[in-house]
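User: I'm putting together a small comparison set for a docking exercise, and I want a reference complex before I start. The sequence is below, and the ligand is adenosine-5'-diphosphate. Could you produce the 3D structure with the ligand included, as structure tokens?
Assistant: Of course. I'll restate your input first, then give the structure tokens for the complex.
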Amino acid sequence: MKKTQENIISMNKICKSFPVELGGEQQVLFDITFDVKVGEFVAIMGPSGSGKSTCMNIIGALDTPTSGKYELYGKDVTHLTSDELAKVRNEYIGFVFQQFNLLSKRSVLDNVMLPLMYRGLVMEDRIRRAREMLNRVGLKDFESYLPTQLSGGMKQRVAIARALAGGPKLILADEPTGALDSKMGNEILTFFKKLNKDMGITIVMITHEFDIARYADRLIHIRDGHINYDGKIPRDERNL
Ligand SMILES: Nc1ncnc2c1ncn2[C@@H]1O[C@H](COP(=O)(O)OP(=O)(O)O)[C@@H](O)[C@H]1O
Ligand SMILES: [Mg+2]
């Protein structure tokens, strides 16, 4: 009982196959099994085509596995309908994407308020909460800007504020520095580290780069849909 409570993610023999155009199917994930505990900072790393995004879509309740069992915060989410999945996502997960996925015609404040729309909060509380989050990412003076007026690093900080606004159990980040230069990328990764250490927010970050994975405390390495390493960050990428 205790065990499932402190696990945010519990993946048990997850397999995923996609139908192939000419018939039959292609298996992309094979018996993926791992747990992530509350407060961990985990990198999921692997070369292009290894199954990272497929894995992230399952973790993020954007897709369901072909077989196996997936529990998110102790709740079995293996076979939910798409409406039920949407509810789970909104309640538990804050997403951060490579391309930021901000609404370009809406202000920074509106963007951060977005996940609060379905929370039954009155407008005043939504605004207060969004401002708190912008303050936390160092953007309190930018609430009325449009995303297009900001640098890439700032846009990603807006996306992080938005991800945090709903009070998620888990931040799920897919190549969060992929569209940033290395200076801004380092800033974002340092910020993730701080969120994890100071606020105890659980972070799962997908990346194909070892130098980015190193910011995490644990590395899960996937190759051809199999986990071939799960443990501390190794000293050298060649050990993977
Ligand atoms: N929706 C889909 N339909 C069919 N094949 C897919 C789909 N999504 C991913 N794949 C296949 O699964 C494999 C792994 O893809 P992906 O999970 O995107 O890898 P990564 O994110 O590590 O680059 C690839 O061969 C890809 O073509
Ligand atoms: Mg991918």
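The CA atoms of residues 138 and 157 lie 8 Å apart. The chain has one domain: 2-231.
User: Thanks, that's exactly what I needed.
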